[in-house]
Structure formats: C-alpha cells, structure tokens
C-alpha cells in the first residue's frame, strides 16, 4: 500500500522529482588499456577533491552517490567520465591513449579529416549543421536549401521561428483541421490536395512535432531544405521537406579530448554488407555453468540438481534467469520457471536492472499484469528516469488501463514543454510517438472524437529497441536486400554525448522506421561491446507492422541476451511487402 501511494504521487507530479540522492554506494572495478591493467589511474568524483588510485592490477574502489560522475585520468590517456546509477557496483573502464594508433589513422584518415574539418568550421560557417546523421554542409546537400544563423535573426522583429519563416522565406505556416500548426515548404495545388508538412531535425533529434515552445533567441542556426528528395534520408518525416535547427544550448565541441565531442556517425553508408553476421544463438542460457542441470536425464532430476546448487548461486540473478530459460525451453516447465521468477523478484527486488529484465520476460510471455507490478516498482526505484514513465504508460495501455496511461502521457508532454534543460531527446520522441499511437488506437475509449486530434500517418515498420543496462554499448546495422546498410552507434567512442544524455535523463531505448520507399527484405544485425560489468545485457526488440493503423497494427516482441562481445549477430529479418512481416531467429 505504501508503494501504491508513492506511485500515485509520482504520476500526479512526474519527472522533476527526487534528483537529490544523499546515500553513497561502493563502486569497484578494473581499469585497463589494450587489455592490460592500468596502475596509478586517478579516480575522483567530478568537482570533488578526494582521489583514489588504481593498484598494480588496475583495481580501484571508491564511494559515490547515484547521479554523480566518476572521472578517470591517467598521464597520456584520454580522460573518461561516467555517470553513476543506483545499481552501479562494478564499473570496469578501458582507457585509450591520446596518441592514435598509426595504422588506424591511415585507414580512416580521409573520413576523419573530412569530419574534423566540418567540426572545426561549425562555429563560424552557417552552412555546417549537426544533424541526426552527423555534420553536414547544407549547401552541398544537393537539395534546394536556405540557411540562416543568429545574426540573420537580429532586428527582424520576428516573435518566433515561424514568424521569421513566414516573413523571410517562401514557406508558410498553416493550421490543420485538428488545430495544430505546421510549416508547408512546398505547395502544388494542381497535384497535391493536402501537401505534407515539413519535418524537424533539432540538434540531431528527428520529429514531426511543431516546436511551439522554441523561442527565436534559442536558435543558433536554421536550414530549410525543400522538396521530397530529402525523404530518402529522413523517410516519411521528410516528404514535405525538412527544417534543421541547431540551438545555442546544444554542445558542439571540436576538442578530441572532450567527453562531449560530437562525431559524424556515418549513419548512412555507401558500403556494401558482406554477410559477416552470424545467427543469434537459439539458447539464451550458458551451458557451461549450468552443466550440472543440463546433463540431467529427466525434468525431476534437473529440478533436484538445481535445488542442490541454488544456494551457491542465487545471489547471481542472471544465473537464475538462465535456469528459468533452461526449464522453459528444454522441458516446457513453466511451473518451475515461474517459481524461479518469484525468487528473482524476492531476492533482487531492489535492483532496477534485474526487475527490467524480469518485466521483459513477462511481456513476451503475455503476462502483462505481472509486468505492470514490476514497472510500478521501477517507477518507485527510479522516479527521476524518463524511461520509468514511458514503460509504465506503455504497459498500462497493454493491460487496458487506458485512463492511467493517458494521465502519464499528458503529464509527460506538459513536462517537455516546460523543461528544456536537456533539449528534445530520443526518449521524448519515443514517448510522443507512442502517446499519439495510444490516442489513435484507444483515444475514443477515453473521450469521444479524441483520435481526430492527431495525425494518422502509418508506417510499414517501426522497430523499438530497449535494453536493460544503461551502460550497454552496441551498434545496430540495418541491411537492405540490395546489401546497402545503415549503422546506428550507441558507444562511448562514437557518441559520448548521447550516452551521457541517456544517463542524465535516464533512458535506454531507441526507435527506427522502415518506410515503403524501399520495398524489400531487411536484416537487423547487432554488435555488442559490453556494459562495463561482468553481467549480460538483455535487449528487447519490438517490431510493429502498419504502425498507427488502428485496424491493422500488429507487433512481435523478442528478448535477446547479449554477453559475447565484438561479434556481429543477426537478430531480425523483416519482409516488407505490405502483406507479410516475419521476425527471424
């Protein structure tokens, strides 16, 4: 009952609460460089004077509070900064030399040089923009484009960005049938009855939402890209052209030693996929340390062996997950599996990462009621994490608790409009996407005609990835049947700014859209690089078909346990022919 009261309090007053945490926790780990122990590394809490030093084995131990940042510094090495979470107990760190390996420099010299030049020119060249696809020169994009910077806004008398657009460009601001404002960059009355509105790329976050909260004084640079050709990069969002906005609050540093450095992520490549991904293993459990159970000849013998071993390993939650997976897949024994799930929750109920993995399992098994309980507990454990609100609203909707879901969605949207501390993030876009989808599917259950208040654009495929450990690093590779591929990185090397924001805001999810512009088969690969602990990372993949179509939308959910690093795994295969959607093993 106490937890329930807390949950109600959080729903009524979401997001901007409980950032202060006074209790410290012990954090320990090993510091390495090129797989060798690194001694004499200084480990300190950011903006604090106390320092601990790693020993000859590279081991360190310190006390730190959640949300504080640990800084690792060593002579000749690039400094590392990592935000601590409530579950952080083990934190292993790999440091790299400030002097790049000569071979790597030669191989990537041309790409790095081009990226570096654009980074350096960003500050003074109003044609250089940072986008969801890295730094681009808008003038060399091959599209009809207009660019402006903050000096162009001075003395114009424009109230906001849209007032400026109407006064100084050929675009117009219109109000659609639902009363929502939108920018029309192209208007062909003889060919198009309802022209598509422009999409927005704001500091690398892509959205269709009209940024009504943004003041003209917030903007550093503005690019208006006309024509539907840009949709080859942005999908349906770009069918009406794109408005690219870089704000003054976004951090664009070119110092290679800075943890906030932005890179060109080479998200869209001209490279060809070489078929180097291997199928993801069928069994999610480790056969090595479960050998005593796996070698059992009967289910009863397996249960007996598990009971005899349990006391030695029950402090390891992922051992228990593996055992539960074994009984489910090898014997179809859901009774023993559920008993183990109950033990996991009882023993590790204060560990948010463990509860999240347990919730994933209940979701794929269709037990949404149990998942609701877990996501409510996660909100109590992590009230300052945006992911907690997204997950709870989503599972409320899945469990037909529509009024509760609507309450969270509406209050989160109100928070986004009031608080621009971190700018629009991936999780904000995800929650907005899902709140609109919720209204389309269930709005009339809340209020009559409410579903008419949002766009009903449908997407052939939406892919949502969620992961259990915020420190997880990986690359997602989306491969088309013609073997061209797209790479999205979630690593400290490529996107330190993104991973820092994930920790600050508290989220671990990202979404992808596959449009019918490129019909054909798609393969989704993932390469995992670890999570700074000795534990695995669980990744939940949700594949939506006919997204935002209230009559045809469907979904499939799979959970993957990643422990092997630096191996490119094929996790999904998608057929896009408007009639068939398959999810590969």
From TrEMBL:
Keywords: Signal, TPR repeat. InterPro entries: CarboxyPept-like_regulatory (IPR008969), Plug_dom_sf (IPR037066), TPR-like_helical_dom_sf (IPR011990), TPR_rpt (IPR019734). TPR repeats lie at residues 352-385. The keyword Transcription regulation does not apply. Residues 1-20 form the signal peptide. It comes from the Bacteria. This is CarboxypepD_reg-like domain-containing protein. The lineage of its organism: Bacteria, Pseudomonadati, Bacteroidota, Flavobacteriia, Flavobacteriales.
